[in-house]
Amino acid sequence: MTSVARPIALSCGEPAGIGPEIAVKAWQELRGRCPFVWLGDPRHLPTDTPVEIVSDLAQVSQVSAEAFPVLPVPFAGETTQGTADPRNASGVIQAIETGVHLVQSGQASALCTAPIHKKALIDGAGFSFPGHTEFLAHLAGRDRVVMMLASPMLRVVPATIHIALSDVPETLTPELLEEVITITARGLRSQFGIPAPRIAVAGLNPHAGEGGAMGREELEWIDDFLADLDVAPAQVTGPHPADTLFHAAARKTYDAAVCMYHDQALIPIKTLDFDRGVNVTLGLPFVRTSPDHGTAFDIAGKGQANPSSLIEALLLAQQMAASS
Hints:
Elements: E1 8-11, H1 19-30, E2 36-40, E3 51-53, H2 60-63, E4 68-72, H3 89-104, E5 110-113, H4 118-125, H5 132-140, E6 146-150, E7 155-158, H6 168-171, H7 174-190, E8 198-202, H8 217-228, E9 235-240, H9 248-251, E10 256-259, H10 262-273, E11 278-282, E12 288-291, H11 308-323
Parallel strand pairs: 1-2, 1-5, 2-4, 3-4, 5-12, 7-10, 8-9, 8-10
Antiparallel strand pairs: 6-7, 6-11, 11-12
Helix pairs in contact: 3-4
Cofactor: Zn(2+); Mg(2+); Co(2+)
EC number: 1.1.1.262
Binding site for substrate: 132-133, 270, 279, 288
């Protein structure tokens, strides 16, 4: 069986959120053209779902055109849509661990993860990781991974993520920026099939510092750092003023933009392509994608959840696995 034919493993995420609902909607849209197996408790799926329990992932491609393939993971019990139950925390974690095992053992081609609810995991299982990405890095034995937000219109990578804006200048070091750019370049080559990726790096300050008038980090180290950085065959340019980096003509000049902080990266992609944004983790020894939204407890079970981001995440995982 080739890597392209292997199914994607989709971990269920928080069962009280929209994860189960959008998983079924994604299956209805994709059917056999993007086979995936759902890792979770079948009791948490919409009641009219035509479930097919599988014990061997080789079965998934055969059944997915007609039924929703499920590799069962035990949970403590039923769930109330819109209200997380900490008793289900161990099941959520086990589903993620099972997905990692399936990709690392070669049974699955990629891992796609539905949104989790961190507080429920902390309350129910003492979850000690800042989030999904850090837990996956731990399971894979990697010290540094990189978050990319990708859509058909734009790929962005924040060098610093969930920290206060006031902490960014101190956290952003040459060592960190080099690691982020290197991992991004490697991921674009190995998982996106871009032999010589073009990476544009945004400046930290408005107008990339404007010669020191709006901040001195560019003058003091960022300009020289980027000029000296060698990640061939990737081409790295910058620092670019962030306010002119994301219009249509500018986006044609690079394959990914590395940004200095969270909102500098996420505002452009969520403005340009909110429903199709996909969270990609670069630096893992396997392909991992996730929809770029949360559990959406407020609409869970109401039939309102939009599966577009999950569909894009599954399709992108399939494409990345084929390139790896």
